[in-house]
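Margin note from the TA: students keep mixing up input and output lines. Inputs are the sequences; the output is the structure of the whole complex. Example:
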Amino acid sequence: MINYKYTNKDTVIHRLNPWCKLAWIASVFILALLFNNPLYLLLLSLSTLPLVLAAKVWKEWASLLKFFFILCLLIIVINALASNRGSHVLCQIPFAIPIVGAPKITLEAILCGAGNSLRLLAIISAFTILTFTIHPDDLVLVMMKTKLPYKSVLVTSLSTKFVPALIDDAQRISDVQKSRGLEFDKGSRIQKAKNYMAIAIPLLSNSLDRAVQVAEAMESRAFGSGKNRTFYKELTMTRLDFVPLAFAFSPAVLGIAMRCLGQGGYEYYPVLQGISFTQLEAIMLIGLVLLLNMLFILAPLKRRVDLD
Amino acid sequence: MIRINNLTFRYSDTDKPALHDINLEIQDGEFVLITGPSGGGKSSLCRCLNGLIPHFYGGEITGKVEVEGLDVVEHSTKELATKVGMVFQDPENQLVATDVEREVAFGLENLAFPLKLMAKRVEEALDTVGIASLRHRTVNELSGGEKQRVAIASVLAFYPNILVLDEPSSELDPKGAEEVLNVVERLNDELGITVILIEHRLDRVAQHVDRMIVLDNGMIVSDGTPQSILSDGKVSKSGVGVPPIIKLVQGLRDKCISIDNTPLTVKEGRAALAKVMSLRAKRSNLNLSEGKVITSEAKQSLRPFAPLRASAQPLVEVKGLYHVYSGEFVALRNISLKIHKGEFVTIMGRNASGKTTLVKHFNGLLKPTKGDVVVDGINTKEITIAELAKKIGYVFQNPNDHLFADSVEQEIAFTLKNLGFKSEEMEPMIDQVLERFNLTQYRHRYPRSLSGGEKQRVALASILVAQPKIIILDEPTRGMEYKLKTELMRFLDEYRKDGRVVILVTQDVETVAEYGDRVILLSEGRIVVDGAKREVLSQALLFSPQINRLAQSLKHYGVPSDVLTADEALRMVI
């Protein structure tokens, strides 16, 4: 079963300073939005995989692929219907659809949709690293550094903690009501809405009970004493942490430079642009792939230095 | 030191006081067990000790509560936090951080402890509770018992003089409960921390406590040593679950067989009973080795209730059942069994051994990955859950998951409506079930506003009103008070005698010892034993009831080694 909660798998990636991981995630995100060239995007997505594998979160990553494919399909279909700028017409829809008109479906439009959804693939990797390798309490600390008030940060972190519990609750209550012979999809629309009340009411009042209990327990442990809080763990950056941090952010810098030099762009319309590389472009692209994976090499290295 | 004078407290949304004229003094280092029926005021009393009452709950408080010299009305819960550590019932709802270390540090952070002192305190709290090895684990991957120990460590970090635990083991399986209670006993024993414990499982803790207080209707009914309170018949009549050994001793005393000290442990019980037996043997001049102290009629009385196996077709038949969750976790492996009319079957096993997964196949909530489940002649693959619901009732553990209607009457009618009963048929059925479960007076009340025991009865009534041929109960007795438990079990025992089937999932050995006749023991998704209760329980180590452990040592007096309950033992000895 995929568990959508953080679990400490104790890999080098899990142990890495959260700032470094956040910098890497930001890099991937920026690059995914920066490039248009499908080959660049594909390479970007592939370059994120070693980190995902090293963090042993590939199962979680794979489970998110499901959403990726759904979104992919959606993007391709919408793009194919909405854009008629391509020149290779595959099929002309004979009737008019309101707003869109009578669209023609072109090869370019389909490929444009497919190419653009490659961005998502890279973003999924970034998301996986964010959710499954950064300790939620560390995220709280990061948010604290951005001067957000502690109470709101804690509430955010608590709510992420209780969402899985809420899902379990809903599942259990639905089992209970089904066992009482309730068929959710039976009856008129009003009846259906009523049927769902059999889940909604217990779910809501159980959650309220839970909220009171949590508040009571926190109160009993002197929460909100008015004094300044201290933190058991501080997010400290050692001088050594700056090396992976710099490397984690470097792909973004390089990417921006490449884009400024006019690399990584691509035109789908009216006909697909050919893909060719100058020597400089190829070298920079290889450099980018390497930089994206530096974290993978630096993390264990830093671990060794730490131990010495 | 806790001093309570004339304490009366009323929650703002009720008319009746939850606590009425309480006077109590608890000395440093005492181990106090508070027990009594649910709604008796146990939790309310605990909440007064760290100021949750009145600061968090509001309401009306009179009298005086002094903890370590601090008046709880004048001092806030936050100030009291370092004096009184509170541990609550549900481990899920009292942990806020993601990993164990930070959880333990949470309270210290709130009080702005400097980092160095915090590190030392966390270290000590983890060691004291014996969870240092879990320090880097995330909280949500721990077992219930481990979570509860984290909760204890997290209040111990304050170095409190007093530890208050409100039913800390009621949400846990027996193993988890054992872990938690062991820790609590050690804290009192070795560190001299005053412990105030609310607990139903008296057989487990009675021998360790110095003092027992029984609360009922918001008043202190009894207060004294566990021996004096438990041997007093008055307490057991007020609905407090007395351990089987005490029940046996009471029975013997009723027959004018004197027993000097009330035994609280199996060991003490063995000694006391051996004395009784040897005395009797001497008096009647019998040769012990022939085992004639016990009459053969008495032995005969151990015969089990014979299930009605006359019908050729079983009500439930499972053939080669496998269940795999998400294509990964194999929860059930090759399960085959038959359940006939009139059987009362108990399914036991550790947590995650597949008990619930198995019974969810009976009413179609889960479908087999491989194999077949046939209920009343119909394969569950060919029928909807709603249709199966006419044959099978399934009672889940927590009544709060059941109840949603505006009145008790509607709650019960909801099931009947789903199952397609007509409204004119429903009326007498509802009347009858309300009567049966003693709920007639609550007919028009909002079910969620009832007390815990009443809610449980409404949930049961809402299932049993349709008179299903098979009824499944998943851990119904966990955290349930004794009186209600006995009522429920007696009802189920009657229910099956009309040719119906009762299937009980439980880890409560003492209940199984008294009721039911067949035990299926699961482990890691396999059936380990499936047999008559007497055989299974009398040969088990972990799953053997208190009286059976006692009887094992009296074999040479001719006491059969498969005696399971106090009543049976009594019949043997007298």
